[in-house]
Amino acid sequence: MQEPESVTVSIFGKEYTLRGAADADYVREVAAFVDLRMNEVARGTPVASTARVAILAAVNIADELLREQKRRLEDQVTLEDRSNNSPVSWCGRWRETVPQKPVVIPCPARDGSYK
């Protein structure tokens, strides 16, 4: 097993040594993102402590993350709804639930034609 790599980064003017399994370049990228967000918050918040800046930056980052997760989930649900309401999908579900009888049900092929 590979030993976790140590990476020294600068966040909001302080040096931190971080260790973990992630690639050093990725750790630096994450640290740069946090540093950027903390500096953005500090510019908009007069006379704030480092702890307050860090918490506000964390809240902003968490807000973005949760909004993105919600958007992706809504997109996934929309795609599933679209695929579940397509004629091809509907016929497949119908055929699975109806007992097999010698009845021919015309359902469109994936290209939209009836075969």
Q: Can you summarize this structure?
A:
By secondary structure, the protein is an alpha+beta fold. It has helices spanning 24-44, 50-84, 87-97; strands at 5-11, 14-20.
Write a structural description.
By secondary structure, this protein is of the alpha+beta class. Helices cover 58% and strands 12% of the residues. The protein has helices at residues 24-44, 50-84, 87-97, and strands spanning 5-11, 14-20. Strands 1-2 form a two-stranded antiparallel sheet. Strand 1 and strand 2 (14-20) form a beta hairpin. The chain is flat.
Keywords:
115 residues; alpha+beta; 3 helices
Topology:
Elements: E1 5-11, E2 14-20, H1 24-44, H2 50-84, H3 87-97
Antiparallel strand pairs: 1-2
Helix pairs in contact: 1-2
